[in-house]
Amino acid sequence: MMNQYDVVVIGGGAGGMSSALGAYQNGAKKVLLVERDIELGGILQQCIHNGFGLHHYKEELTGPAYAERLKQELMDTEIDIKLQTTVLKITKDKEVHMMNEKDGYQVIQAKAIIASNGCRERTRHQIDIPGKRLSGIMTAGLAQRYLNIDGYLVGKKVLILGSGDIGLIMARRMTLEGAKVLGVAEIMPYSNGLNRNIVQCLHDYDIPLYLSHTIAKVSGNDRLEQVTLSEVDEKFQMKEGTNKTFEVDTLLLSVGLIPDNKLLTDISVKMNPITNGAYVNDKYQTNIEGIFACGNSLHVHDLVDYVSEESYEAGKNAANYVLHQNKVKQNIINVKSSDHIHYVIPNQIMLDNKNVAFKFRVTKPMEKALIMIKQGNKIVIEIKKRHLLPAEMENVKVNKKVFKYDDDISIEVKGV
Amino acid sequence: MFKKEMTCIVCPRGCILTVTKKDGDYQVEGNLCKRGINYGIKEVINPVRQVTSTVKIEDSIHPRLPVVTDKEISKDLIFEVMDEINKVTLKAPIHYRDIIIKNICGTDVNIIASRSMDHI
Amino acid sequence: MYDVIIIGSGITGAFIAHFLAKYDIKVLVLEKDVEVSDGVTKANSAIIHSGYDPKPNSLKAKLNVLGNKMYGDITKELNVNFKRIGSYTLAFDKEEEVQLKKLYQQGNKNKVETYLLGKKELRAKEPNIKETVRLGLYAPTTGIIAPWEIVYALLENAIYNGVELKTNHEVIDIKKEKNIFCVKTKENTYYTRYVINASGLFAHKITQMVTNDVDYEMRYTRGQYYVIDRGYDDYVNSVIYPTPTNKGKGVLIVPTIHGNILLGPTSEIVDNPNDTEVTKDGLHYIKEHIDYMMNHTPYKGIIRSFSGIRPKTSREDFIIEELKDVKHFIQVAGIESPGLASAPAIAKMVEDSLLKKEQLPMKSDYRVYKQKNLKISEKPIDEINRLIKQNPKYGKIICRCESITEGEIIDAIKGPLGIKTVDGIKRKVRPGSGRCQGGFCQPLIIEILARELKVRKTDILLNNVGSNILIVETKQSGGEK
After folding, report:
1. In CATH, what number does B52-113 get?
2. Chain A residue with the nearest C-alpha to that of C407
3. CB contact under 8 A, A151 and B66
4. pLDDT given at position A80
5. Model pTM?
6. Chain C residue numbers touching A217 (CB-CB < 8 A)
7. From the CB of residue C8, how many other CB atoms can be counted at a distance below 10 Å?
C-alpha cells in the first residue's frame, strides 16, 4: 500500500517549516516535510547576518538562529521529516515522487501538497553580460554559501553587480573575511537593497555604490581579470566615454531571484509570468485543488518573517482543506495589479468575513504615495505611505467584508 | 554647529535623519518614530554594530559555525573582533547561544553561537 | 613507442581513436586541455546535418552524407542519445525561394532525401513559423546529438580497449627523424610512427611544426548562441534553418537531445582562437534573425549564452590528407560545419588511409565499453530501486535541475576518462546544465571531486589550469580554544 499523508510539504526552509507547523497546529494529523539538504533551514543557514525575526519573534536574529527557532517549534510536534530527500515530481492526483539513499524511490499519496521549495538566483546568462565564460564570475548567493557554510573565499578582489540585499551583504562579508571589495554596481538609479544594508555593508567600509552602471565587458584568460563598467542612460543604454575598468578576480552577481517551480509547471499549474510563481487564491491554493504554494517559490520576499506568516497560513488552509474539504467556489473575485504596482498576491479571493493579506510591490520608488484598493471604479480602501520602494514588499491586511460580489479588485498607487 | 545626515536603519523604512548639535544638545529631524532619535544620536556619539561571522569547527556537519555578538559593539572594533574570531577552533557539539568568546576585545560583549551544531 | 599519436580529443580525434581501437596497435591521444572535448566540439549547433547543403562532389558533401548515415549504428552501439528529428529550411521571400529550390536540386545530387513544402504544410508541422513563410525544404534525416557525449563515449570505449589518453598535454614540438616522429609536450616526449593532427583550431600550428609548407590560412569564425531551458517543447519539433547564404547556414533553432533549445549561431571572424566572448551585438543579432522566422520564441526561458569558434580555412573544404613532404603525418584540418555530422566518415577515411599503407592486425579481445548507469532518474522505478540497493549514492540527487545523482557523478570521476573538473562532470553527466547553472550543485560537485580525487577543494578547477573556483580557506590564523 502506498504511504499516505494528509499534507506533504516540499522544502524545509522557513516557508516549509512554517507551513508544516501551520498544517499540524490546525488539525492535519499526518504531515510530512521533505527537505533535500542535510538539515532543515534552507537558505537561512547561509544568511549568517542578523536582521531576521523582528516581526515574527519580536527580536533580532541571525538567519541560522531564525531557522533554529523554527526547528525547535517543529521538534515539539509529530511532523515527519525526511532529510536528504528530493522530490522528483508530483502529480495532479497529489502523488509525491521522491528519492533518497535509504528508502530509494518512493511514491507517497498526499491529500494536500504545499510547494515551498524556494527560489534560485538569476545568472549572468539571463542578463546578457558580455564577455567570456570565466572562473570567478558567480552568483552572490553561491559565494555566500562557499564562505559561510564551507569556509572558502571565492576571490580576493571583488566587484559586485546588483545592489540587492545579497549583494550588499556579501560586500561586507567578503571584506570582513579579508577580500577587497572595489564597488557595487547597480543598473537602476536607486538601490534595490534595504537601507540598513546600504549603510552597514557599504558606507561602513567605504565601498562605493555605482548607481546607473552596468557591465560593458568581462575579460580574462581562464580566470576573471578585468571588469569594465559603463554608465547607463534612462533607457539603460550604455553611455559612451563612461567606462571604468576594475582589476578584479571575482564578479558576484546579485541580480534577482526567480521562484523555482519546475514541479508545478510540469503538471501545468497556472503560473504568473511576473512573479514566476503560481496564481493563487487567498488560501494560497493554486488552480489545482489541494495544491498550495507559498514562500519564495510563490514570490520572492524580502523579509523571512513574511515568509513564515504566509506559509503558516498556507499550511493552515491545507489542513482545513483536508479536514473539511473546503471547496467553496462561490463568490470568487479576481485581484489585479494596476498603476505602478508590479504584482499582487493573492490573485483571487473568496468573499467571506475573514481577513486577507494583500502583498504587492511598487514598480518604482515613490515618496508620499497613496495606495488605493478599488473594486471597479470605487475606491474601497486608501492608505497613505511616506515611502514606497520596489525592494520592500507591502503587506496590507483587509477584512474581506468591505468587498462586494461584483467587479474585480485592483490595487494601484499614485503620488500625492 | 555640528550637522550630519544619515539613513536611519532601525526599521526597513529608512528615514533620512539630520542630526544637529547645538549648545551641547543633539537634535534629530526626519525621523518618523522615537527610535530614530536614539539611533541618530548614538550613530554620532558612539556608532555600534552587531558583528556576524563564522568560526572553525571540527567533527560537525559543516566546517564553520555561524556566530554573532550578543550585543552591539563599537564600530571601530569590528576588525579587532574579526581577528579574535579567526583564531578560534571549536569541536562539536555546540548549542545555540553557547558563548564562544567571552568579553571579546575587553568589552562586555560575548561572541555566541548562532545555531546548534551536532557532533557527527 | 607508439604506432599512432592523435593530437586533439575533439569529435574528430575521438572518432579516429575509436576506429583505431579495434586494431592491435599502440595509440596515444594527446589533449592540451584538462578535459577532452573542450574546443570546437563543446560549442556548436549540435546537429547531424542531412547533407543537402555542401557543394556537390566536395569532401564536405561526401563525408556529411556518409557520416549522417553512420551515426545511427555507432550511437546505438555506444548507448549515446541520438535522434533524427528532421529539419525545415525556410524561405521568406522570392530570392530565398529560388535559392531553396536550388538547394533541393543540390540535395538530389548529394543523394539526400528532401521535400519541398508549402506554407500550409510547414505551419501545420511547426505552428510557430511566421505567416510570411513561402517555401520550406524538409530533410527527415537531420539529427541531433550532444557532441561531447559522443566524444566521451568514443574515448571511453577507446581507452577501455587500450588506447592511451593524456590530457593537459599540449604538443609544443614535433620532429621527424628517420621514420620516427618525436612529439614533445610540456611534460614529456613521445615517439610514434604516425601522427594524426586533429587539433581543430590549432591544426595549422601543429602542421607548421613539421613543414614550412602549410597551404591554407585559418579563419577563426565565432558563433554565439543562446540556450533555452527544458520545458518549452511546444515551440518547435525539428531543426529550423533559414535559407543559407554565402556566410553560412545562418541563425538556427535547434531542439537539443536533452530537451533544451539552441538559438544561433552568429558568424563573426575573430583574430584569436580563444576569443569565446559573447557580445551584446551578437546576442541581439540572434534574436533579430530568429524573430524574422518565428513567433512565440520563449526568450524568457534563456538559461545560458555561449560562443564557439569554428576552424574555417581558406580552402573552404575539409582538409584530410597525408602531408606531401612529410609521410605518415596525416592532417585533418578545417573541420567546420558540417564537421560534427561528418566526423565518423572523416575518421573512416583516416582509418582507410592507414590501412592502405599497412595491414593492421585486429585485437582479439576487443569489446565495446558499456557505460555505467546513466540518467538514473529516468529509469523505471523498480530499476531505480534495484540500483539504489546496490549503491545508495544513486538515490541522492545532487543536481536538482537535471535530477543527477551522486552515484552518476562518482561513476564519471572513476570512469575510464578520469574526469576531474567541474565542467568535465557537467559534460559527462549534466549537473550545472540546467536553470540554476550550477548555483545549487556546484559546491556539492566540488566536495565530491575533492573527496574522490583526494585533493583540496581549492585545487578543483572549473575547466582549465588557473580556473580554480575556491581561492582560499578562511580562518587560517590557527589557535585552539
Report:
1. 3.10.530.10
2. A101
3. no
4. 98
5. 0.95
6. 277
7. 32
